[in-house]
Design brief:
Length: 239
C-alpha cells in the first residue's frame, strides 16, 4: 500500500462551488477512482475533496463512508480513507451487471415502446451522433447519450428493474464513458442497430445488442486503466 496523499491542486475541480449532499461527494470520488485519477493505496484527504466539490468536510466524510460500504475505499484507523484495491475482474463485473439489467429492459421495451417514444429515441440518437461528429462539449454528448438509454429504460415500464440498474450505473458515471478510448465509435454503430431492432419489435436482438454495447466498454476501460498504471504493482509482482 502506498502512502501518497492528494493535494487540492492535483484534483479536478467541479465547477462553481455550492452546497451538495454526501451522494454528490461519493459520485465525485467514485469517478476519480474508476477513471484511474487516484489509484489503490492512495489516501484521500477530506480538505482537497471538500475544496474541489465546494462543500464542508462533514459531507465529504459521509460520502467517503458511503463509498466504504460499496467497497471503493477503506477506512484506516487514525489515518483516514484509502482507495481500496480493485481488479480487472471487478471492473468487468460492474459492466456485466449493468449489461444484463440493461439488456432485459431493452428487450421488454422493444415489445411495447410507443411510436412517439421511438420517434424521440431517433431524434436523440441523431442529435447525439451530430454532437460526437462535431466534437461538441462533453456535457452535451453525455446528456444525449444518457437520454437515449433513459428513454429505453422508461419504455420497458419496469420501475423496480430500472431502479436496480440505476444503483449499478452510479458506479460508472455517465460522463466517464466519453473518456473510454473507442467507446464513442462503438456508440455511433450500436445505437442505430438497437433502434432498428426496437422498431422491428425484435426484442431478443435488441437485448443482445444492448448487452454487447455495454460490455464493449469493459475491455476498453481495463485497457485504459492498464495504460495509466493502475495495476502496475501486479505486473511487477508477477515478473
Amino acid at each position: 500500500m502506498t502512502t501518497q496523499s492528494l493535494s487540492a491542486g492535483s484534483l479536478p475541480r467541479v465547477g462553481t462551488p455550492k452546497q451538495q449532499l454526501s451522494e454528490d461527494v461519493a459520485g465525485y470520488v467514485r469517478e476519480l477512482i474508476i477513471s484511474g485519477r487516484v489509484k489503490p493505496g492512495d489516501f484521500l484527504r477530506t480538505e482537497p475533496i471538500a475544496e474541489a466539490v465546494g462543500v464542508s468536510n462533514t459531507p465529504v466524510r459521509e460520502g467517503l463512508l458511503l463509498l466504504s460500504g460499496e467497497g471503493f475505499v477503506e477506512l484506516v484507523p487514525r489515518r483516514g480513507f484509502v482507495v481500496a484495491a480493485f481488479s480487472r475482474q471487478d471492473v468487468r463485473d460492474i459492466f456485466w451487471a449493468q449489461a444484463d439489467l440493461a439488456a432485459e429492459l431493452c428487450g421488454r421495451a422493444a415489445k411495447q415502446i410507443s411510436a412517439a417514444q421511438l420517434d424521440h429515441l431517433e431524434e436523440v440518437m441523431l442529435k447525439h451522433q451530430e454532437a460526437v461528429r462535431n466534437k461538441a462539449d462533453s456535457d452535451t454528448i453525455v446528456s444525449l447519450g444518457h437520454e437515449f438509454h433513459r428513454t429505453i429504460n422508461l419504455a420497458a415500464n419496469s420501475r423496480r428493474l430500472a431502479l436496480m440498474l440505476r444503483s449499478i450505473v452510479k458506479q460508472l458515471p455517465n460522463r466517464f464513458y466519453n473518456e473510454i478510448e473507442g467507446h464513442s465509435d462503438d456508440t455511433m454503430h450500436a445505437h442505430p442497430e438497437i433502434l432498428d431492432a426496437m422498431r422491428n419489435r425484435r426484442s431478443k436482438a435488441a437485448a443482445n445488442l444492448m448487452r454487447d454495447h455495454i460490455m464493449s466498454g469493459a475491455d476498453e476501460l481495463v485497457a485504459m486503466l492498464e495504460k495509466q498504471g493502475v495495476w502496475a504493482d501486479d505486473v511487477e509482482s508477477t515478473a
